[in-house]
Amino acid sequence: MALPEQRYLSTEYITENPTWDAEDSPWKAKKVAQLIVGSGVPSNNICEVGCGAGGVLASLRSFFPDSLLTGYDIAETAKSLWDKHSSLDIRFFVGNFLEVNKEHFEVICILDVIEHLQDPFYFLDNIKKHGDYFVFHIPLDLSSVSVFRESPILKVRNTVGHIHYYTKELALSLLVESEFEIIDWKYTNASLSGPGGTWKRRLATILRQVCYGVNKDMGVRLLGGETLIVLAKPI
Predict the structure, then answer these.
(1) d(CA 226, CA 111)
(2) Can you say whether residue 140 is alpha, beta or left, with left for phi > 0 and alpha for psi between -120 and 50 degrees?
(3) How far from the centroid of its chain's Cα atoms is residue 16's Cα?
């Protein structure tokens, strides 16, 4: 059986996900920018590890017009999606960030990456020396409903390659156990304000709004539909 990372080194991932979820990028970039600006951390040079199509960095350019923006991805096929951002002065590199990067960044963004990695502890332990602050975006795939139905978890496993699944508490614990200090975290309201959505999702949103209004943590553990954005720094 091939290692999970192999699907990104071949054409398998881009074949199944031809846009590399670029349509979500402006929404995601806004969440990242709000967290960085709101926390007042330095942002003169920002790197995204696992940048995919580069859409988040492209959208971040409007929030940080004078910052050095750099993207890394292990997938050679992602290069074909970077050309559209050539006018935005963004540096893109293909390669394993931990093996080829020689720079230090004020902010490193790790967005929708942790859940794909064979060994997230190894990755987190080795990336700490490369940045002052880190922004994580982590989908919260685990909920009472997703475990009961099972099909939502299998869907993200088979289509987008999630091999680890988190609740808010599990995600934050992973970072703390990897010796990161949590500076701030927020739910993104992904199911309520995120892009796209079918009629089934819109119907589920009504129920989520009711449950979230009673108790957000309980509602997320019960119904899911959320992601977590976290600002942290190495201890």
Answers:
(1) 14
(2) beta
(3) 19
Provide the pLDDT confidence category of residue 18 given band limits of 50, 70 and 90: confident
3-state secondary structure of 83: helix
DSSP-assigned beta bridge partners for residue 181: 233
* Displacement of CA 51 from its chain's centroid (Å): 9
- Given a contact cutoff of 8 angstroms between Cβ atoms, the answer to whether 157 and 167 are in contact is no
pLDDT of residue 1: 41
The model scores a pTM over 0.85: yes
Query: Which residue(s) pair with 45 in the sheet?
Result: 68
For 120: left if phi > 0, alpha if psi spans -120 to 50, otherwise beta; the answer is alpha
Q: What angle do CA 24, 26, 30 make, to 5 degrees?
A: 120
